[in-house]
Design goal:
This protein is α/β, with parallel strands linked by helices. It has two domains: about 160 residues, Response regulator (Rossmann fold); about 140 residues, Response regulator (Rossmann fold). About 45% of the residues lie in helices and about 20% in strands. The protein has ten helices and twelve strands. Strands 2-1-3-4-5-11 form a six-stranded parallel beta sheet, with helices on both faces. A six-stranded mixed beta sheet has the order 7-6-8-9-10-12, sandwiched between helices. Helix 3 runs parallel beside helix 4. One of its GO terms (molecular function) is carbohydrate binding. This is Sugar ABC transporter substrate-binding protein. One of its GO terms (biological process) is L-arabinose transmembrane transport. Belongs to the bacterial solute-binding protein 2 family.
Length: about 350
């Protein structure tokens, strides 16, 4: 009888932790009890593994590029990028591989935050400093891993405020408007962004139209497909405000609306990322993609590498949080802001 996927994952985890403990015995590195506590310094070549969920998405492609660029600036640092897709078992397996190869540091964007305790235990057992990139993770006792990324609530608030500004300029009212909110509902970052979007819009506009919340896997295709079903269930809506957890959700929603003959004039889409919303601006196409919050994956990748190398070479404690900056862009300023349109 073959083991269930859950039992297989647990068995893999047991081997992973055991392998981490063996690696720690032979590494000769001095560490504290928690992830990132290593104080001994290391000269010579460094290898940092960057494990990313959905590594084919443009944001994560940019993040990997930023990590490699920073490694080049720091010198004698190599970056090993691993695409985890959306597979938590693959993430556990990849951690086992990197532990076995005794990499010097790990940055990880987990496919599912629930594997946080396993990931942290593996890094601690192997005495390898680790940072959580983009999505926060915590140990089994609730202690957060060092984090590099964005403030999700503030990001959402900025998107909501921009949507409210455009909504007021258009003269729309809650009576003939609905908000389409697309996001991966089990992901805490997405939950926080959605909360911020609603709060920012309410503050900016004074009231919030009915919100249609749609669960997606954070991909363009799923957002587009789910939006088509929403339109069937919500006939007669004149105006749509669209936002999401990322650019994939927002642009997927806007595309579906336009495919169902909703005029771009009746859509206010505010993306989160700008790397996909910019496509229509670059092409000069009239679109419901009116603005976006520019989040630069390159800066996150660079920051993750920088804090890890600072610890490895200089003995600096990993900061609890390293927060990257953001900016609202639209068709008039996306290029000058540095958005790289995918």
């Amino acid at each position: 009888m073959f083991p269930s996927p859950r039992r297989a994952a647990l068995a893999g985890l047991a081997l992973l932790v055991a392998a981490g403990a063996l690696t720690a015995c032979s590494s000769g590195k001095t560490t504290s009890a928690s992830t990132g506590g290593q104080q001994a310094t290391k000269s010579g070549p460094l290898t940092i593994a960057y494990l990313q969920k959905q590594g084919d998405q443009q944001y994560f492609v940019d993040e990997a590029a930023g990590a490699k660029a920073e490694a080049g600036k720091l010198g004698n640092v190599s970056i090993k990028v691993v695409d985890l897709g959306t597979d938590s078992n693959k993430a556990i397996s990849a951690m086992s591989t990197e532990v076995g190869q005794q990499v010097d540091g790990i940055a990880i964007v987990v496919p599912d935050q629930k594997i946080g305790p396993q990931v942290i235990d593996a890094a601690n057992g192997a005495k390898i400093p680790l940072v959580a990139s983009d999505d926060p993770i915590s140990s089994g006792s609730g202690s957060a891993a060092p984090f590099v990324g964005f403030d999700s609530v503030q990001m959402g608030t900025s998107v909501g405020q921009e949507a409210a500004k455009l909504y007021k300029q258009a003269g729309w009212t809650p009576a003939d408007t609905k908000v389409l909110a697309l996001y991966q509902q089990g992901l805490s970052d997405c939950q926080q962004r959605e909360q911020g979007e609603e709060a920012g819009f309410t503050t900016g506009a004074g009231s919030l139209p009915p919100v249609v919340k749609v669960g997606t896997d954070n991909s363009v295709v799923d957002a587009q497909n789910k939006t088509a079903a929403v339109l069937t269930a919500n006939p007669g809506v004149k105006h749509w405000v669209v936002w999401g957890c990322n650019d994939e959700n927002e642009t997927g929603g806007v595309t579906a609306l336009q495919n169902h003959q909703v005029s771009p004039d009746n859509i206010i889409g505010v993306g989160l990322g700008a790397y996909l919303t910019c496509k229509d601006w670059k092409a000069g196409t009239k679109s419901g993609n009116k603005a976006a919050l520019f989040i630069d994956g390159r800066s996150v990748g660079a920051s993750a590498v920088q804090v890890l190398v600072d610890q490895l070479r200089n003995g600096k404690t990993l900061p609890p949080k390293t927060i990257a900056s953001t900016a609202i862009v639209d068709s008039s300023n996306w290029q000058s802001a540095g958005v790289e349109c995918s």
